[in-house]
Amino acid sequence: MTAAFVRESPRGAVLSLRVIPRSSSNAVAGIHGDALKVRVTAPPVDSAANAEVTRFLAGVLGVSRGSVQLLRGDTSRQKQVLVAGMTAQQVVERLRPLLGGV
Q1: Count of structural domains, the chain
Q2: Assigned domain for 82 exists
Q3: pLDDT band, very low/low/confident/very high, at 101 (cuts 50, 70, 90)
Q4: What span, in angstroms and rounded, lies between the C-alpha atoms of 14 and 100?
Q5: Which domain holds residue 76?
Q6: What is the pLDDT of residue 99?
Q7: How confident is the model over 17-29, as pLDDT tens digits?
Q8: Please, which residues bridge with residue 1 across strands?
Q9: Which pTM does this prediction carry?
Q10: Residue 8, CB half-sphere, CA atoms under 13 Å: how many?
């Protein structure tokens, strides 16, 4: 069973995110409805927060930066990202320690 914030796609796992820019640190901050809450230090200017989200998630999930692609929400706090080559279950397993057992 997977969490509500992630679903399978033919290219990998798609995550629904709620992004909080200008935070004091980068962190996975829990669940917000059906989205994974992610805090990033970058401001929402010139796509800096989007770049920081993809870089941070790549590090947390142990994949290359090129494997994490923004699909929707370029100018919104609600975003969808694709993690190419991973299943939804693999994403949940890697995030579980940060979420206290999804």
Answers
A1: 1
A2: yes
A3: low
A4: 21
A5: 6-99
A6: 85
A7: 999 999 999 999 9
A8: none
A9: 0.92
A10: 6
- Range list of β-strands (E), the chain: 6-9, 12-20, 27-32, 35-39, 68-72, 78-84
Has residue 1 been placed in a domain? no
What count of other Cβ atoms lies within 10 Å of the Cβ of residue 70?
16
- Measured distance CA(76)–CA(93) in Å, rounded: 27
CATH value at residue 70: 3.30.1200.10
Contact at 8 Å (CB) between 36 and 15? Answer: yes
Domain assignment of residue 26, yes or no: yes
Buried b (16+ CB within 10 A) or exposed e, 78-96: ebbbbbeebebebbbeebe
Mean pLDDT throughout 38-57?
Answer: 96
Calculate the CA 24 to chain-centre distance.
18
For residue 75, being part of any structural domain is answered with yes
